[in-house]
Amino acid sequence: MFKIGKVNKKGKRRIIIVVLWPFMLSGLVFLSIQFAIRNAGFVEHYYSMGIYPFIAKFFSSFSSLLPFSIWDVFWILIILLIIVGLILVALKKIKFGWFGVRILQLLALLYSFFYLVWGYNYFRPKIEKRIGWESPKADEMIFTSVLDSIIKETNYNYISISSADYSKIDTLIEASYRNQSTGLGIKYPNGTRRPKTMLFSSIYGKLGLSGYFGPFFNEIHVNNDLLPMDYPFVLAHEKAHQFGITSEAEANLVAYVICIKSEDQRLRYSGYQSLLLYFLGDASHLKEYHEYLNKINKNVIEDLHFRRKYYQGLENKNLSEMQSAVNNVYLKANKIEKGIKNYDQVVSLVLSWYYNSNQHIDIK
To answer: What whole-number distance in Å separates Cα of residue 279 and Cα of residue 361?
Structure first.
């Protein structure tokens, strides 16, 4: 009897460990995040530029073998399992408490896995510090000069882009990343980047999503309903996330540089017209605003009008606002202080890039 009692105690301890280990792991990850928040340099050296490139290479070498999104399939299976579990609970085949614990274990594991395979990049230093940029003082003359330059380049590089060009565009973006990686503080090649189409592009379109990076399997996704004129910029943006760039503004900056520094006109046009929209948004308060609008060529204006109407037709306003609210909470939880407004901060980053990289602009 004594021996059986000892076995039972060991068995109980084993059960406790099996139940608690996902929560213990998530607790350790949470504590490590608190350390990471206070030690950005440590994160940059040991994780972002040390461990993460190996993680990206490992997962992307596997996920790139498959033409479909593993993450989209994964979350569909999770939802189906939850539905089946709820049915079994309703039929009293399994206990609600047991099912609830398993759901909590799954959430704890997903939380831990997210930060271990990519999420720690949120706590690396900002791009200005990583590259050693000086922050220029706010200067309306510099802003309007860069805006004027972007308008001229958008007009000059205007070209029609077709979905038939996508494979070539992917190759050109990779070539530009390879050439610009040092200047942008990127560790190239950082694994493999195979663009994948979202399995439910129409649903994502209603949410206002043009693409996303799936960190769990190191996958890059682009919405199948994306306009060809936006494809190079969006693809370059999502690839920036794969390189460990978490800030949306920084990903926009990197996408801009990757596109406009390409020798291919399609990439340059996509990059310039994408940033033109951000700059025009910031220029709307200027008394010369309409003068700048009049400088934009008719073909570009037609593209921008068509673009606005097209995406408005895809988007569901209520779903888009809900998605934005969720994304806002998510970004702020990961120390992106401006939340979804972080996307718009690309203007100041582009001004810093022109200032620090000695790009030619005409200041009148």
So the answer is: 15
Give the integer Cα–Cα distance in Å for 300 and 358. 27
pTM score above 0.70:
yes
- My answer on whether omega of the bond before 53 falls inside 30° of 0, hence cis, is no
Q: What is the pLDDT of residues 142-197, one digit of tens each?
A: 889 999 999 999 999 999 999 999 999 999 999 999 999 999 999 999 999 999 99
Alpha-carbon gap, residue 216 to 70, rounded angstroms: 9
The dihedral sign for the CA sequence 198, 202, 205, 210: positive
Q: How far is the C-alpha of 79 from the C-alpha of 293, rounded, in Å?
A: 48
Segment 201-223 shows an average pLDDT of 93
How many other C-beta atoms lie within 10 A of the C-beta of residue 234?
Answer: 22
What is residue 121's DSSP assignment? G
Tell me phi and psi for residue 252, to 5 degrees.
-65, -40
CB proximity list for 251: less than 8 A, separation 6 or greater: 237, 238, 240, 241, 245
Gap between the Cα atoms of 334 and 115, Å rounded: 10
Judged by DSSP in three states, 128 sits in helix
Taking the C-alpha atoms of residue 28 and residue 108, their distance in angstroms, rounded to an integer, is 11
Residue 218 backbone zone (phi > 0: left; psi -120 to 50: alpha; other: beta): left
- Cβ–Cβ under 8 Å, residues 151 and 273: no
Q: Are 300 and 155 in contact (CB under 8 A)?
A: yes
User: Token pair for residue 203?
Assistant: 């649903």
The rounded distance, in Å, linking the Cα atoms of 327 and 317 is 15
